[in-house]
Amino acid sequence: MASFDALMQGFHAAIQPTILLYGFIGCLLGTVVGVMPGIGPALTIALLLPLTFKVPAAAMFVLFAGIYYGAMYGGSTTSILLNTPGESATLVTALEGNKMARKGRGGPALATAAIGSFVAGTIGTLALTFFAPLVVEAALAFGPAEYAALMVLALVAVSAVLGRSALRGLIALSLGLLFGLVGIDLQTGQPRFTFGTAELLDGIEVTIAAVGLFAVGEAMYLAWQGRSAGGEIMRMEGGLMLSKSDWRRSWKAWLRGAGLGFPIGALPAGGAELPTLLSYYAEKKTQQPS
Amino acid sequence: MTRLKPTRVAGLILLALGLLAGWQVSIIPAPPAYAEVGPHLVPGVTVALLSLLAIAYLLADWQTGQVDMIDDPEETPNPGANKRLQWYGIGLAALMVLIPITGLGAAGAFAFVGIAKAFDSKRTTIDFLIGAIFTTVVWMIFALGLGVQLGPLVKGF
Fold first, then answer.
1. A79: closest CA among A66, A96, A56?
2. I need a surface site. Which of A67, A86, A149, B63 has the fewest CB within 10 A?
3. pTM above 0.90?
4. Shortest CB distance from B53 goes to which of A167, A219, A223?
5. CA distance to partner chain A, nearest, from residue B91 (Å)
6. Do residues B47 and B98 share a domain?
7. Given B71, B102, B119, which residue is the final one in a domain?
8. CB–CB contact B50 A219 (8 Å)
9. Residue A234 carries which DSSP code?
10. How many domains does chain B have?
């Protein structure tokens, strides 16, 4: 059990007070970063990289991991309460969590996001420790064709399942693909859809699109409606706790999410968005709305 | 002349976007002769898909009508929607136009006033002050605290 020994050594290192403090700072900073749209975990870690010259490597790893986990959770808070995803991976949380908040169930939505993050994150981390060698082999077997198939599956599933009109879903899909193509073609270096401007050579960032669609668009929609502000405040009714039926409906979804997220996240370039959308599709098909 | 329905306008904008994107695809340089797949292939397919879908949308709108939120009694706006949207547009435009001229701080304050007016705010002076304080705090956190290059808060200082 070489990996088990290594894991125990890791726990021994992680339990030291200074390392725990770094973990706490990382989570706190990550949550703050996740709440703010436009600045993500990758940017924060890049800004903090100079610290690695002064601080031991283990502490830095704990800090960075804390930032990542914190950001992934912090993004869900604004998604649920403000319908503004802080991270691209929390788009789905905004779609469904905000509906819950509108019904006065913001507390349980926040709680299930937090507990689900913890459960699936713990499963993923444990699984990674023991299955990492196997996962590496599977990841290496993935070629361009497999990636393309995975991508097409996620895109088609999402555009077909969202909203009432499949035609509108497909239009949104092709618009998204079109905006994603802006910038330099990575294979040949040719600029595409840049209209000759240097600013567009790097393409359009996901965060910009997300803030434009969900923050600017949502505010514009609210201004157009012109409802009095009183009706739009999300009240946190009924406390944070999940009811018995919430637990019953949630725990399988957490496990399914971990089952989808772990293998894809372990693939290089798997990312957080793809498994999120896939598991949303799976839940939307299997769960009956109560 | 009857006014165009909003859904019809949306379809026409999509079609125009398809044509514009098609023009951009046509000016992507052709790949060298030995390459089977060039940088124009996927953009071409995407633009063709978008244009086809836009035509399908317009046809469906012409025959059966598309769902428009304006017809949904729960979603119809309160009176004065266009005026509010105009203020919103003025706020956003102020942000985009003023940032290169005055710097982020002043532009943010003016944008705040415009968007607050879009939400039926009557207190322009207080809005301006709130916007100025808010953008200053944000600018201090990002420009001074995190070292992000945002330019000066107000140009000339």
1. A96
2. B63
3. no
4. A167
5. 11
6. no
7. B71
8. no
9. -
10. 2
Q: Do B75 and A216 touch (CB under 8 A)?
A: no
Please name the residues between 226 and 285 in chain A that touch chain B, using a CB distance below 8 Å: 226-227, 229
- Complex ipTM value: 0.77
- Quick one: B60 and B92 in the same domain? no
Domain membership of residue B43 as a residue range:
6-71
pLDDT > 70 in chain A, percent: 83
- Show the CA angle centred on residue B18, arms to residues B16 and B24, nearest 5°: 105
Work out the average pLDDT over A54-69.
84
Q: Do B78 and A226 touch (CB under 8 A)?
A: yes
The amino acid present at A144, given as its one-letter code, is: P
Q: Is B66 helix (H, G, I), strand (E, B) or coil?
A: coil
Please say which residue of B23, B50, B71 terminates a domain: B71
User: Which chain B residues are closer than 8 Å to A227 by Cβ?
Assistant: 78
Task: Check whether residue B15 and residue B66 sit in a common domain.
Answer: yes
Same-domain check for residues B94 and B47:
no
Residues of chain B with pLDDT under 70: 1-3, 35, 69-70, 72-75, 145-148, 155-157
- Indicate yes or no: CB of A225 within 8 angstroms of CB of B147: no
Question: Which position has the token pair 């299955």?
Answer: A131
Q: What is the pLDDT of residues A69-124, one digit of tens each?
A: 888 888 888 788 777 766 667 777 877 777 787 777 777 888 888 888 888 888 88
Which pLDDT tens digit goes with each residue over A12-39?
Answer: 888 888 889 988 998 898 888 887 765 6
3-state secondary structure (DSSP) of residue A184:
strand
